[in-house]
Design a protein that fits this description.
FAD/NAD(P)-binding domain-containing protein, FAD, 3-stranded antiparallel β-sheet, binds flavin-adenine dinucleotide, oxidoreductase
Amino acid sequence: NAESLQLRDKDFYEKAGIDVIHDSVYSIHTDKKKVTFSRKKHIDYDKLVIATGGVPRKPPIKGIEAKNVYFLKSAKDQGDIKKAAANVKKGIALVGSGFIGSECAAALKMKYKDQFDVHLVGMESEPLELALGKEVGAMVRSEHEKHGVQVHMNKGVKSIIEGPDGEAVGVKLSGNVTLDVDMVIVGTGSVPCTKFLERTETGIKLDKQGAIVTDPFLQTSHPDIYAAGDVASFPYWYTGQMTRVE
Ligand SMILES: Cc1cc2nc3c(=O)[nH]c(=O)nc-3n(C[C@H](O)[C@H](O)[C@H](O)COP(=O)(O)OP(=O)(O)OC[C@H]3O[C@@H](n4cnc5c(N)ncnc54)[C@H](O)[C@@H]3O)c2cc1C
């Protein structure tokens, strides 16, 4: 369960003098050095670190809102997916062949063996290619196939076919391929959580995807504000290319 995954318990924060506020940040006022919350409180800061991560990207695919289409981010998502997978008869399509798609395919195959089909769909030529390159990706594909995962690479999803009750009953891929499934898990990257920065003039530079642009030390375009984790786009030390972990 989620509690067992906590790195630190409540006592740790109390002993360390860290004030944990369970609330959502509504806006940041860099001129007054204030962070405001949805429940109208605010705190003052001298320096600020933004580490708001991202939420799963929902690609604009027809049928993406169908029942039985899942995204994986939280412990609750994981519980919902487990429950739904237990009722699958025909198969599951994993849309996106990055870490989430690839790991889900392996986990489902290990648990359910040949009870239903497991399809892994990706736009690149190999699974995990964007993160690990073609060569390692080809090894991952071969492992998947050895274990019975049906891998569909160089394929985009055209639409998710909905049944009479709005449930996903199939997935149409490019190249006229249709997968007969009764559950879809989408793992197509994440969108940075930076909406709260758009509510005021912060002077914090965002990239086209809404990620916070930083220098090599994770300092943003505002000298008192830093960004870290999945929300940050930083220059990769080796190439200098701007990089964001998705
Ligand atoms: C299924 C899954 C498996 C993964 N496996 C691995 C793995 O094996 N190895 C690995 O290295 N990485 C893995 N990752 C990625 C890893 O989880 C992320 O890289 C990491 O969690 C990023 O940390 P973060 O603190 O930047 O963002 P997050 O962990 O997303 O935390 C952001 C926090 O900010 C909060 N927040 C957002 N907006 C606001 C707001 N306006 N006000 C207040 N709070 C806000 C969110 O609620 C959240 O609590 C996995 C991710 C997933 C989804």
